[in-house]
Amino acid sequence: METEKQRIRELCSAFYLTGISAGMEKYITTAEQQGMGFIEFTSGLLEMETVYRRERDLSKRLKTAWLPQMSHLEHYQPNAETGLPAARLNQLRELNWLDQVFNIVLMGPSGTGKTFLAAGLCRDAVKAGYNAYFRKMDDLVNMLKTKEYVKTQQTEYKRLLKANLIVIDDIMLFPLEKNMAVAFFNFINQIYESTSIVITTNKKPTDWSKQLDDEVIATALLDRLLYHCEVINFTGESHRLKNRKTIFGEAN
Known about the structure:
- The protein is α/β, with parallel strands linked by helices and 252 residues long.
- The protein has two domains: 2-65, no CATH class; 73-241, Rossmann fold, CATH 3.40.50.
- It contains twelve helices and five strands.
- It has helices spanning 2-14, 18-34, 38-65, 86-93, 96-99, 114-127, 137-146, 151-161, 178-191, 208-212, 215-225, 239-242, and strands at 103-107, 132-136, 165-169, 196-201, 229-233.
- Strands 2-3-4-1-5 form a five-stranded parallel beta sheet.
- It starts with a helix and ends in a 10-residue tail after the last helix.
- The relative contact order is 0.13.
- It holds the Pfam family IstB_IS21.
- This is Mobile element protein.
């Protein structure tokens, strides 16, 4: 019996059936106890491999998405006062806007939940099977700067060009040099018709020309981002400031 099991493991390795190999021992014991027929046994083996590959693929895509730690919308607390009531959150999580290649702009003060929501929608999209990625604005700028001579950045560039969804966090937080403003515009111009874009920003669109130091580029960029777009304005006090912690205990 052990010789036959070893032979099965070798065959699994030859055909890259890692899921079957990993769960074989337990599954054979269960099959013997339940008296499974050949068809049920074979179907269960293939299902085990399918589940393993699905989970491995999801894990890989979540890793590639670069999601921040806080990105589970089950922990998100929608609040109409801050700009997003529960009904709208549920509608966003259905991802119909993604199928329609709609963009979403999350605008408002720092600490009001924009990044949390954007990352959570990205996680939902990855789990639903979309090619979705979360990137800080700095990540994108660095990629555009170095993609011509850094292989990993060239790979990143090609990956993003094929995305269904790209989240750009903290867009226009810092000014861009003219050459990078042009490069960023060209990137958006390449993807806006086939990729949904979610952006978070604490800058009003009217301030973008100052950050880019070019009103023409700012206008052209906004024209593409705001075409087929939902703008959600966040208000209120920073969650981090309201819940800031101290190294000291209660005063006596």
